[in-house]
Amino acid sequence: MRSLVLVLTATVTVALAQTAQAFCGFYVAKADTSLFNRASQVVLVRDGNRTVLTMANDFEGDVKDFAVVIPVPSFIEREQINVADKGLIDHLDAYTAPRLVEYFDPDPCKRYVMEQFSIAGAQPRSSAEMDRRARALGVTIEASYTVGEYDILILSGKESKGLIRWLNDSGYKIPKGANKVVGSYLKQDMRFFVAKVNLEEQKRAGVTYLRPLQIAFESNKFMLPIRLGTLNADGMQELYVYTLTKTGRVETTNYRTVKLPSNTEVPEFVQAEFSEFYRSMFEKQVEMQDRRAVFLEYAWDMAWCDPCAADPLSADQLRKLGVFWVGGNKPQQGRIAPQQAQNVFVTRLHVRYDAEHFPEDLMFQETGDRQNFQGRYVIRHPFKGESTCDNANYQAELKKRQEREAQQLANLTGWDIDDIRTKIPLIANNTPEQNVPWWKQLWN
């Protein structure tokens, strides 16, 4: 029996830069998903009860050992399944990633005004023997498709034990403890979308990696099933959810949705250590929320960005991600005109989860809030040219500012304040001023 891995990304279980100038600063670094291990990405396009789900997985290993099992709310026809270009998700990740921006102090000897800105081996199609075995266990193979390099089955079942046994007998290694979780999905009359890699089709397609799978369906539930993914997870998992909607920001309803700290000034050296900074900052925020929160990293109208870590996605790219109300060669009823294609609001959510702290699936709601938000961290470079005047006041204020930046960095990350000070030349050899009573210096 081949050893197959049940993958569900967080949504879904995986068992299965160029520097750009922006109006209010220079974008110099971004915190994309590559900063974290075991990171899964899901794009959710949602309007009314219509959903398009795109899943990118972080599977490592031989593709013949890959498989994915995903609960879905209804029967899925062949035309509801597609294979996507991973580059679309990479672009969306870069566009929405938290970013580091920089400003440069002007010459303090010149008058200026500072403007503030707010800112798995091939699975053969079901045979008569497979159907008989499935029916004997209370499992129905409702459909069988080959889409791109994937062989796909749509399964339903009468009870969880029979379904799990059939999956195990068919080569899917379902993790221990799945019976209760699978049973809860069956009680909701959900089906299971099962996919393996067809090696011959993959070779014919000329791809050497696993492309994202897409599913389009209708459901009144706006949710992401993550519980199966916690059963065989090795420690905490990272999940990024990008939602594309018409109305506004998306948030979770059964867990706290928390905005990450933003618009914070940090010392210059963070530019060279941005990855370490962001990981430490995120870890501390997770701990502060008792590991039970979903974090908002970005919320913005897709038509523009400030500063831009990547260009906004085009109408054609959005369409390929499943944004069905944009573009199209022939506008149809219910679709907006091509010139209105940017009527898309993107929300980026980041969750670190396990079974203990996230015992329920993620439930979402679309809000009418279109207020822009981004994880944004600011470096202000001191003026380093030759001054033509007495700039003692500037130097004194600069020292205070850099001490404040050091304190803010320590608060965000938990890093040792003394270690931080050693990396800031102006304050490295200075002890912060203490509130000394005036009279202690009176006769010294």
Overview in brief:
By secondary structure, the protein is an alpha+beta fold.
Question: How would the blueprint of this fold be written?
Answer:
Layout lengths: L3 E4 L12 E3 L2 E6 L8 E9 L2 E7 L9 E7 L8 E3 L2 H11 L2 E6 L23 H9 L2 E9 L2 E8 L2 H10 L2 E2 L4 H10 L3 E7 L1 H7 L7 E6 L4 E2 L2 H5 L5 E9 L4 E3 L3 E4 L4 E2 L8 H15 L4 E9 L13 H6 L24 E9 L8 E5 L6 E2 L1 E6 L10 H22 L3 H5 L3 H4 L16
Parallel strand pairs: 1-6, 1-11, 4-15, 8-23, 17-19, 18-23
Antiparallel strand pairs: 2-3, 3-8, 4-5, 5-13, 6-12, 7-13, 9-10, 10-12, 14-21, 15-20, 16-21, 19-20, 19-22
Mean pLDDT: 83
Q: What structural class results from the helix and strand content?
A: alpha+beta
What's the count of strands? 23
| Sheet having the most strands | 9 strands, mixed
Q: What can you see in these coordinates?
A:
The structure is a single chain. By secondary structure, the chain is α+β, with helices and mostly antiparallel strands. It has two domains: 4-381, no CATH class; 389-403 and 415-444, no CATH class. The protein is built from eleven helices and 23 strands. It has helices at residues 86-96, 128-136, 160-169, 178-187, 199-205, 227-231, 274-288, 315-320, 392-413, 417-421, 425-428, and strands spanning 4-7, 20-22, 25-30, 39-47, 50-56, 66-72, 81-83, 99-104, 139-147, 150-157, 172-173, 191-197, 213-218, 223-224, 237-245, 250-252, 256-259, 264-265, 293-301, 345-353, 362-366, 373-374, 376-381. Strands 4, 5, 7, 13, 15, 17, 19, 20 and 22 form a nine-stranded mixed β-sheet that branches. Strand 9 and strand 10 form a beta hairpin. Helix 3 (160-169) packs across helix 4 (178-187). The chain is elongated, with a radius of gyration of 26 Å. The N and C termini lie far apart (86 Å). 41% of the residues are buried. Mean pLDDT is 83; it is low at 1-24, 111-126 and 329-341.
